[in-house]
């Protein structure tokens, strides 16, 4: 008998010593962590580069935004399918597929002769990125025992939080001395190295099962989540300038199709054939954790887009100065994550999640008071506070959310988390930018100068984020450590 996403033990006379399995598992997780860090880094590396690309490729701001929008759209479309993919295929081929797609996309982007090919490269990159994170989380939940998952999930938190945080800094450093193509040229050998090493050293640690794919669910997922994220992205763009199609149309169509997709999954999961098994949401801890992670992603991506605008357009800092100012926050998240994981293993989520939510809210409320002459040191303190708050929450939420599920739902739980993060990130970006632009336009129409109007718009956007953060504080009160699940007898040591 086998169970999906579970290691099949060797016969007793061939069983490897436990330490061999431990070394193998550590190597597999380490390779997946390094690879995931590289692919996630690219999700935010383009933001600072857009002005350079507009000049070099002679494109408008609206067109340049598609380099980010197309990436998010592809992630939203591909991630829901990964639950099925991880059940049907084994660890090694899924890893090779993910890193091959990412490497191919990086190469296409590096040699792109024009804008259209560059967008194609970003789409191919995103396809690999979308597969990598669910693969990492599902593998960790399968290999790591509950009592030490916090520490390992802390390392995953470094990937999730630090890579996007330092993306703008790295791109700012590259663009200060090199052409935009070097953002891809420098990443390519790292990606190819990770692919080669992983193809050679990663072993299969899960058991595939014959899971039939429902084509209609794939189509509904692509239209629903793709349309919804496109609509959210369009709201932010429409705040700057008119769009050919009202963003509300794809937003409403996407929401309607997602509703149909959900109904179909509820029907299919009765026969264990769902593309995205929504029985994950019957776990209260999982649902609350995913809702909190969505709030965190909204706050994080919203702050990542608003702070550079404020620092550059209001305070007059350069791209490089902006990246360097935001770098300590990313480093703090990275330094905190392993410690947070260890504390989680020892004390559980409550002493971490509640203070984290409070710090997040304090930082966002503090940013609602920015002025045209606010000290950069106060902004640095606010960003560090925000970063510590995020670091205290990411690891516990990842761990308790997936830990509350049975092993056969790990892959679907990872896909649900990834989908929620992408939609929330797009929503946060769109919401913050739209509020900032609308308020700035309103102030300009009443006679305010550009700096005053921009500052007022940014304050309003942060106020919206601060109000949303109160939801995270309230939800944190309901987070608890899930009861440990006994390992099935046939997979216990010695069998």
- Indicate the low-confidence ranges by residue numbers: 1-19, 486-495
Query: By helix and strand content, what is the structural category?
Result: mainly alpha
How much of the polypeptide forms β-strand, as a percent range? under 5%
Q: Roughly how many Å is the radius of gyration?
A: 22 Å
Q: What sequence of helices (H) and strands (E) makes up the elements?
A: HHHHHHHHHHHHHHHHH
Broad shape = globular
User: How many distinct helices?
Assistant: 17
Question: Into which percent range does the helicity of residues fall?
Answer: over 70%
Summarize the main sheet.
none
The beta-strand count equals 0
What distance lies between the first and last C-alpha atoms, to the nearest angstrom? 12 Å
Mean pLDDT: 81
Characterize the structure shown:
By secondary structure, the chain is mainly alpha-helical. It is built from 17 helices and no strands. The longest helix has 36 residues, at 410-445. It is globular and about 65 Å long. Mean pLDDT is 81; it is low at 1-19 and 486-495.
Task: Give a brief outline of the structure.
With 495 residues, this protein is an all-alpha fold. It has helices at residues 18-41, 50-57, 61-64, 66-88, 91-110, 115-143, 149-177, 182-185, 187-201, 215-238, 248-268, 284-314, 319-347, 350-367, 376-403, 410-445, 450-476. Helix 10 packs parallel to helix 16 (410-445).
